[in-house]
């Protein structure tokens, strides 16, 4: 089986590829496991962290149809479409966000349509597709009302994938990811970057600034949980997801104050005291429009799982990514 991961040089792309290589196969639609023979990692930078002979790094602009034609062939069975311009950057650079988050998504779908082989396409969407006046708990079918360019781009791409699936051009499924925390590395341009930074930096002995109020509620999922959900979502039978539309993935609903308290309980006062608070109106406006609680009964019914609590997320980061 040949697999393409867009955004393959990124944090999630690399972890997904590593887990797929470790697993060695995928069992689509409940059938027998099929061996993974090749994973293509497409990104604007070379993905050189993996040296497995089954991995091929493709460098190019995902919005360029010629690049996609090289990356996708009739033997490409599964596409994990992770490539994206993150929320804060998409808000700051409208044209770039539209080009990568929307135009490239349509170009990818058009490439699959032209080849006529109906690959399985797993698209990672976001909490940002919601916004405005929301119920206390949002459902999979709660009306989309994004309040950011990023959220709008993701919402349009969701609808496109649904229609290409309905028409039989691809076998698509949309997995709406909670905010991923705790991400390793350095801060990025995402409005939600602080959700990792206020844990990661203190654990690394550095100060961290929280740009939102302590009562801001977030919906979070660990990197471990995200990778597990992407693979499990890919393997779901088509008939199980065909009528239900996008799937809100399980996560942990937690306020920023509760995140700080969990860090204090897991790592101690000295670590948690490295967090300071300084409001950033732009970040508060974007993040404040996102839902803090999701009804994930459908995801649970499909066998998709999340983290138990935020303390478990912190411990997973400490085990997997905290520098020794």
Automatic annotation (TrEMBL):
Keyword entries, A-Z: Carbohydrate metabolism, NADP
Record has Zinc-finger as a keyword: no
Domain of life: Bacteria
InterPro entries reported for this sequence: DenD, Epimerase_deHydtase, NAD(P)-bd_dom_sf
Molecular function terms from GO: oxidoreductase activity
Segments forming domain NAD-dependent epimerase/dehydratase: 3-208
PANTHER family: ADP-L-GLYCERO-D-MANNO-HEPTOSE-6-EPIMERASE (PTHR43103:SF3), NUCLEOSIDE-DIPHOSPHATE-SUGAR EPIMERASE (PTHR43103)
Protein name (database record): Putative epimerase/dehydratase
């Amino acid at each position: 089986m040949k697999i393409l991961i867009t955004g393959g040089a990124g944090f999630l792309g690399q972890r997904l590829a590593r887990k797929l290589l470790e697993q060695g196969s995928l069992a689509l639609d409940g059938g027998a496991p099929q061996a993974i023979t090749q994973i293509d990692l497409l990104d604007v930078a070379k993905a050189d962290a993996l040296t497995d002979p089954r991995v091929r790094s493709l460098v190019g602009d995902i919005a360029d149809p010629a690049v996609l034609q090289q990356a996708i062939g009739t033997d490409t069975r599964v596409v994990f479409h992770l490539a994206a311009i993150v929320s804060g950057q998409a808000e700051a650079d409208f044209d770039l966000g539209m080009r990568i988050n929307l135009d490239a998504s349509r170009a990818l779908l058009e490439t699959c349509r032209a080849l006529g082989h109906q690959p399985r396409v797993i698209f990672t969407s976001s909490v940002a597709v919601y916004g405005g006046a929301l119920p206390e708990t949002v459902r999979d079918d709660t009306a989309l009302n994004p309040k950011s360019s990023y959220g709008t781009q993701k919402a349009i791409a969701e609808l496109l994938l649904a229609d290409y699936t309905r028409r039989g051009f691809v076998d698509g499924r949309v997995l709406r990811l909670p905010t991923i925390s705790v991400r390793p590395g350095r801060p990025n341009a995402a409005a939600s970057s602080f959700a990792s930074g206020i844990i990661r930096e203190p654990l690394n002995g550095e100060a961290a600034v929280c740009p939102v109020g302590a009562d801001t509620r977030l919906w979070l999922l660990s990197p471990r949980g995200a990778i597990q959900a992407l693979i499990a979502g890919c393997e779901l039978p088509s008939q199980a997801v065909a009528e239900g539309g996008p799937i809100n993935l399980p996560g942990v609903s937690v306020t920023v104050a509760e995140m700080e308290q969990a860090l204090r309980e897991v790592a101690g006062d000295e670590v948690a005291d490295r967090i300071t608070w300084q409001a950033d109106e732009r970040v508060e406006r974007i993040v404040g429009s996102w839902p803090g609680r999701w009804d994930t009964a459908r995801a649970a019914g499909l066998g998709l799982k999340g983290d138990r609590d935020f303390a478990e997320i912190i411990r997973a980061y400490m085990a997997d990514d905290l520098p020794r």
